[in-house]
Amino acid sequence: MDIRKNIYSLTDAELNSFITAVNGLKASGRYDDFIRRHHHAMDESTTLPGEPMTFRNIAHRGPAFLPWHRYFLREFELALQSVVPGVTLPYWDWAADAALPSPATAPLWNTNPASGRIYIGGDGVPPGNRVTTGPFASWTALIESGSSLVPRAGGLIRLLGRDPIATGSPAFPARAQVEQALTVTTYDSSPWSESQTTAPSFRNRLEGWLRQSGEAGSQLHNRVHLWVGGDMLPGTSPNDPVFFLHHCNVDRLWAKWQALHPGSPYVPTSGGPPSHNLNDVMGHLTTPGSTPAASLDYRGNLGYTYDTGVALIQGRFGGQGNFELVVPRSAGGLAHYWRNNDDPAFPWFGPIPFGTSLGTVEAVTLIQSNFGSPGNLEVIARAGSQLYFFWRDSGPAFTWNGPFLIASGVSGHPAVIQSRFGAQGNFELVVPLAAGGLAHYWRNNDDPALPWIGPIPFGAGLGSVESVTLIQSNFGSPGNLEVIARAGSHLHFFWRDSGPAFSWNGPFTVASGVSGNPALVQSRFGAQGNFELVVPLAAGGLAHYWRNNDDPAFPWFGPIPFGATLGSVPAVTLIQSNFGSPGNLEVIANLGDRLEFFWRDSGPAFTWNGPFTIATGF
Amino acid sequence: MTDEPRVKEMTYKNHRVTLREDENSCDLRIDGVPIKMARLAPESYHSHIFTHQEFSSAEELARALIDTEGTLWALPGEDEPHGPHDH
To answer: Residue A515: how many CA atoms within 13 Å on its side-chain side?
Structure first.
């Protein structure tokens, strides 16, 4: 299962792999096949007898716009993997860049290595507006000439936000427009085209023909094409690799919409224009059986998903201690859920949204601190390459405060704990760095200014790290920091002594064949307290590992697989609760469109129970 | 009621543009070459080339096409596009 990430979240190694794969495809000529297929699809009109004029083709201006591009992107992604195994297609969350004074200054277009990473090169250079910078400089494009495509040497053409052909200087799509589109509950409506009607249509809204009051011209997907300008304007728009980043984001938004509206079916099932009905085979794709119906389960049928996170704790609210859960929302920001553990029915409450100003959040970590009474909830979330802090008071207002930026240049899944260092107990944070390896930050909770200190890098030898989990164990005094990090399909263990050297030791490989993010606790099993680890398996489902801390060799046991029916799991979180004795293991898996709960009894059977769906459409 | 087609000819950047419109259809030729386009609604002209946008008039669309001829697309017979690139 492939996990697609925000391009700003890629590590340097992942970005390099993507660029290498794209350039490899271009050099082989296979990249140009995608330009041809997109152009040919656009060239093939499909209409119904007697219907009003439409410019619908088999891939655009109709219901199959989203399914056709879903397959097209997956075929491109698999082609990339034939060049660089394991590479996945990143997405460009363009609505996040809309918040900038000028989206053309977004990191995606950076051309100065001193200012940050180079992604896909910069704007075109007048007068020819050719792209002369970045990894795709000097590419030869294919352009339409009559019924064929002919080469055009000299580089791609871009005019970021300034292409006069695009009706002046079109404004960038705003996040509010994206959020509005996600509220449309109907997938599409007759006449199944680009026509401006009052009929609701998520597809027509996202594609960009359906406008809201006060809007003019093309919107959303279409507007991004116009804003980039140049080679992104015509039907040969896959000439520019930003096409794939853009459409990956469009596909991600459709996936979000699917999660938000699980009861809204794809339409039309029949009677619509050829190639656009639910079970019509869509042309100019290479995947057998590529129908809109088969595209709907993108995880199961196409084998990919989008990065996300989830974080669970058992807090000190309530008599038993409620479960508190924070998860990224499909519509942006985060959602807080809680389970009332004093109610025998164990009902879940939520979602309680917060942090919506962040837009897309890809990863989150949560603790209950000893600030306030019974303790504030403290959250760290990653959006793009930046970490933000939130906290929620202990009541009665229960107000979420934040976001507060605490770090940049990060990637993957962070992990935060409140340690036993300092009088109050400092916050300890470990997060993968975009440049590779890991970084440790800590917040001095004895300083009234509560300053964050770091980064303290370690584990650089691992290269690209995708996710990390952190505990403070009862080894050493006041307790060592223990970290498990996933790099590729391997889990690696690190530990840091309790001082005074505070040296990081590792990596020590623990497991292979894993995916997503690991989740680690020190349980109350054994005399010392074993380490318990749950992690998604690359082959699907979850695995439980444990380390026998009463054995001086500290052997790891596992994998003990469970939850295989879930398929790919992007994110998982684990606690040991105070149910059972010494305490059940409780796991929540985020599949992107739903949260699934598992629990394992405290013995002697040690049986995993679940999955139990606790939330959808969040 | 008569439905006489409106025919307009003009020259733009050394290209000959011929527009022919009636209530039901719209035809655009550049240097005699027919261009795939349609009027989907009043002041809503769409082309096969610029597939992500609409133009308010056929003349505006024709000018956009000519401004990019040789760079973003080419009239048939032009094997090595070069053209003016500064739109």
So the answer is: 24
Q: How many CA atoms lie within 13 A of A70 on its CB side?
A: 27
Sheet strands side by side (includes A348-354):
A311-314, A323-328, A334-339, A348-354
Location of structure tokens 């096949």: A33
Angle between helices A242-260 and A220-228 (to 10 degrees): 170
pLDDT tens, A68-114? Answer: 999 999 999 999 999 999 899 999 989 888 878 889 999 999 999 99
Tell me which of A464 and A456 has the higher pLDDT: A456
Structure tokens at A607: 């049986």
Confidence class for position A169, pLDDT limits 50, 70, 90: low
Query: Is A304 in contact with A318 (CB distance < 8 Å)?
Result: no
Q: Which of residues 457-516 of A touch B (CB under 8 A)?
A: none
The complex's ipTM?
0.90
Q: Which of B50, B53, B81 lies nearest to residue A152, judging by beta carbons?
A: B81
User: Using a CB-CB distance cutoff of 8 angstroms, which residues of chain A are in contact with residue B81?
Assistant: 143, 145, 150, 152
Residues A575 and A521 sit within 8 Å (Cβ to Cβ): yes
Per the prediction, chain A carries an average pLDDT of 93
* DSSP per-residue codes, A562-597: E-GGG---SEEEEEE-SSTTTT-EEEEEE-SSEEEE
Do you know the residue count of chain B?
Answer: 87
| Identity of the residue numbered A102 | S
Contact A480/A498 with Cβ under 8 angstroms? yes
What residue type is A58 in one-letter code? I
Contacts of residue A536, Cβ cutoff 8 Å, sequence gap at least 6: A514, A515, A516, A517, A542, A543, A568, A569, A570, A571, A572, A589
Could you give the angle at which helices A65-83 and A30-43 cross, rounded to 10 degrees? Answer: 170
A390 pairs with which residues across the strands? A379
The structure tokens listed for B22 are 């009636």
Do residues B73 and A234 make contact, with C-beta atoms less than 8 angstroms apart? yes
> Contact B51/A234, CB-based, under 8 Å?
yes
Note down pLDDT in tens along chain B; length 87 residues. 456 788 999 999 999 999 999 888 899 999 999 999 999 988 899 998 999 999 999 999 999 999 999 999 999 875 445 444 444
Contact A145 B50 (CB under 8 A): no
Q: Measuring CA to CA, how many Å separate A154 from each of A251, A404, B14?
A: 31, 45, 24
Nearest to A282 by CA among A79, A67, A40: A67
> Where would I find the beta strands (DSSP E) of A36-147?
141-145
A587 in Cβ contact with A580 (< 8 Å): no
Chain B residues at the A interface, defined by Cβ less than 8 Å, are 33, 38-41, 44, 46, 48-55, 64, 67-68, 71-81, 85-87
Half-sphere exposure of B3 (CA within 13 A, CB side): 6
Nearest to A179 by CA among A96, A107, A120, A111: A96
Q: For residue A497, count CB atoms less than 10 angstroms from its CB and return exposed for 0-12, middle for 13-18, buried for 19 or more.
A: middle
H/E stretch holding A522 reads strand A519-522
Question: Which region, left, alpha or beta, applies to residue B31 given φ > 0 means left and ψ of -120 to 50 means alpha?
Answer: left
Angle at A547 between CA A544 and CA A548, to 5 degrees: 130
Smallest CA–CA distance from A226 into chain B, residue: B52
Burial class (CB in 10 A: 0-12, 13-18, 19+), A464: buried
φ, ψ dihedrals at A460, nearest 5°: -60, -25
The whole-model pTM stands at 0.82
